[in-house]
Amino acid sequence: MSFDNAYESLLGHEDAHWAFGTGFSEALSGVNREFPAGVDRDDLAAYCLMLGDDALIFSQRLSEWCSRAPELEEDIALANIALDLLGQARMLLTRAGEVLGKSEDELAYLRDEREFRNVHLAEIDCGPGPGGDFGTTIARLLVFSTWRLALFSRLRGSADPVLAAVAEKGLKEIAYHRDHAAQWTVRLGDGTDESHRRMQAGLERVWPFVDELFATHAVEARLAGVAVDPASVRSEVDGVLDAVLSAAGLQRPADTKAARVAGMAGRDGVHTEAMGFLLAELQHLHRSLPGAVW
Amino acid sequence: MSTSWPLWEVFVRGKRGLNHVHVGSLHAPDAEMALRNARDVYTRRNEGVSIWVVPAASITASSPDEKDPFFAPSGDKVYRHPTFYSIPEDVPHL
After folding, report:
1. CA-based nearest residue in chain A for residue B15
2. Against a cut of 0.90, is the pTM above it?
3. The CATH number of the domain where A63 resides is what?
4. In sequence order, what DSSP letters do the residues of A242-280 get, joined into one string?
5. Distance CA A98, CA A93 (A)
6. Chain B residues closer than 8 Å to A179 by CB
7. What is the domain class of B2-61 according to CATH?
8. Inter-chain contact B46–A20, Cβ cutoff 8 Å?
9. Per-position pLDDT tens, chain B of length 94
10. ipTM score
11. Chain A residues in contact with chain B using a Cβ-Cβ cutoff of 8 Å
12. Contact across the interface for A183 and B36, Cβ inside 8 Å
């Protein structure tokens, strides 16, 4: 073993050096992909799109920080989180595609705005664009990952074996996302006057979009036993957020609600003005060069 | 801004039973964040099951100027090396 390069002992040819080996396999290999009996497949596909689009769109937003985060280390951390979410999106869109007869790429790149089912919290600009800053991004990550962690911990018991497996795998990832956001929330909230002001402003920015997270959609209501009713996780999420905000010395914003359009929001395909611009960037390559692959 | 955060040295253990190995350094505001940054920067490719972070300022290093007084005297002490034993072929990692 050479000691010229410290990494060599880690990156040697022996598989034994790697913490979990090098035999990578498909994320959900071995999972039963039969559809559970008595479940409406169109509803199942719609639900997979909801959870998948949340991850896909938020992943796109987080990716915008690439090369622009305050520190190189944070740049990589946000990109890691974005990649975790992209992985979840791929599994969920693939599951939806099994019902709809479409590939994950077709669903990600060739749907129009009204066909996306993500919540507004995932799509709004929280920085690095003019809609926010790093504090706003952390505020969104804290709310989003706390909410998704609560959903996924229950989704492990889903009657759909694929959803249960996606939740089981995603739980470990989201637990880290929430931890990362909570660590930063405490440091910014309990840091300087400027960091406290920005963190509080970030919470105020995202709070109007919190209520939508807990609104039960008709699809979720019909999928009892397969889907998680988001209304059922509200008290748990509130408890976690209150604990983090309290430790950070931050105020929980007043419960204002962003306006709906004729009672509809992201789960119905009705989006904010930011969504079209986001999709243009996400989809333009695939639409310019149809069928493009890596 | 990078200069305002202290430097940390990162040690990663690849697998139970192996030593922690120095893999690099990073900036972080405090120890907890250094641990998380190390997880994100140095274990992305499945490298580790355990991480140590140490403030770089806490490491006392030998000086290159003292290289000869420090290390040269052991260069000619051949009797300190176990070269007079034959090593059985079925003993790995000796």
Report:
1. A19
2. no
3. 1.20.1260.10
4. HHHHHHHT-PPPP---PPPBTTB-GGGT---THHHHHHH
5. 9
6. 36
7. alpha beta
8. yes
9. 445 799 999 999 987 778 999 999 999 999 999 999 999 999 888 878 899 999 999 999 988 888 888 888 887 887 787 777 777 888 776 6
10. 0.78
11. 6-7, 9-11, 16-22, 70-74, 76-77, 80, 179-180, 183, 187
12. yes
